[in-house]
Design a protein that fits this description.
There is one protein chain. The chain has eight helices and 17 strands. Strand 13 and strand 14 form a beta hairpin. By secondary structure, the chain is α+β, with helices and mostly antiparallel strands. It binds FE2/S2 (inorganic) cluster and fe (ii) ion.
């Protein structure tokens, strides 16, 4: 709030103060919000490690010496329509102003033994929060182009929602992702990381390793002299990649479609997904219109929503309409594929290249 007070015109600040940070997208345009994000980040960079040190010492039974990640991350996640509208600005800040798909943090140079500190400064709702994939705990999944590989089955996600002031701790090796914001509120959190033991990495590559402060040298402000040297660092020697693919049943004939079990999700050829809900089979387009996740690896809720596995966007199986109405699936039984179609598709089942966001 102090940064907003110092940098915004008084009338804008008063509106923000009145409406709350959850409504920041109604007060600031995308360019202004990007600037405020950068200003808040710069303001916190010096003070945040000292704050983390004091907070952790009070909250957890840590040893005298631990290690604090030097990166302070400020995250404003605006409702999806706003993200779409201001994407030229938001896209530059993956995971901060733009959605992050399912990932392990070590892919961004974070230590493999780091713990995330996720602090809610405003309300965090189930429709704009954080998703963890606890079924994958202990596994290291293969990486795709920008996040997890398309064919990985992520299991049942755990949705994190919070009241302002709540702090969530989770191990950075948990597969996790941002939920596509289909609420009318902006989610505002600040995150940090720490390790109890010396930071470990899969390989000795200082250029790709995040900086960590030695807690014993972090004072009220932070200088480079408090950083621990990057070499030699502990290396995680054994770091096997585990692929978690799930074979999706492919149902073709009308009889097979009608015989799906209640709640079952199956592929229907390379481009469609079939879902059985309340005694009816619904056929919808198979790849999420957001970023192309394979919905045959998604989940069906009891109220008939097919939930995308990557950013958990729900689609109504009866209509194909998403919780965010600008995202929708084609819906209806497609004509049975001809031999020509099959030859053209070559049996391929990869997602189309979607437009972002
Ligand atoms: S919600 Fe992002 S890919 Fe489906
Ligand atoms: Fe992350």
């Amino acid at each position: 709030m102090n940064v907003a007070r110092a940098t915004l015109p008084p009338s804008q600040f008063q509106r923000l103060d009145r409406e709350g940070f959850e409504k920041i997208h109604t007060v600031l345009a995308a360019t202004e919000l990007e600037k405020l994000y950068l200003d808040v980040r710069a303001d916190l960079a010096e003070r945040f490690p000292g704050f983390v040190k004091r907070m952790l010492r009070r909250a957890l039974p840590l040893p005298e010496r631990f290690f604090i990640n030097a990166n302070t991350v400020v995250r404003f996640m605006v409702p999806y329509e706003e993200l779409h509208r201001g994407y030229a600005h938001f896209r530059k800040h993956l995971g901060k102003l733009d959605l992050h798909g399912p990932h392990h943090d070590y892919w961004q140079g974070v230590a493999t033994n780091a713990i995330n500190i996720w602090m809610a400064l405003g309300r965090v709702l189930p429709g704009n929060g954080l998703a963890l994939y606890p079924d994958l705990w202990g596994k290291t999944l293969p990486r795709g182009a920008s996040h997890v590989r398309d064919d990985q089955h992520l299991g049942t996600p755990l949705v994190v929602s919070c009241e302002p002031g709540d702090v969530v701790f989770f191990h950075s090796h948990h597969m996790h992702s941002s939920i596509l914001n289909h609420t009318d509120e902006t989610r505002f959190v600040i995150t940090g990381r720490f390790t109890v033991d010396e930071p470990r990495h899969p390989r000795q590559d200082p250029a790709r390793q995040a900086d960590y402060f030695d807690s014993e040298r972090v004072g009220e402000t932070t200088g480079a002299e408090a950083l621990i040297p990057k070499t030699p660092l502990a290396v995680d020697a054994s770091f096997p990649i585990t692929s978690v693919t799930r074979r999706v049943r492919d149902v073709q004939s009308a009889d097979e479609l009608a015989a799906l079990a209640e709640g079952e999700i199956a592929a229907h050829g390379p481009r469609h997904v079939a879902v059985r809900h309340e005694g009816r089979t619904h056929v919808l387009s198979r790849f999420c219109p957001h970023q192309g996740a394979d919905l045959s690896l998604g989940r069906l809720t009891p109220d008939g929503m097919l939930v995308c596995p990557w950013h958990l966007h729900p689609f109504d199986v009866r209509t194909g309409v998403g919780a965010c109405p600008m995202l929708r699936l084609d819906c209806g039984v497609p004509p049975r594929p001809t031999e020509d179609d099959t030859a053209r598709d070559g049996g391929a089942s990869g997602p189309p290249t979607p437009e972002r966001p």
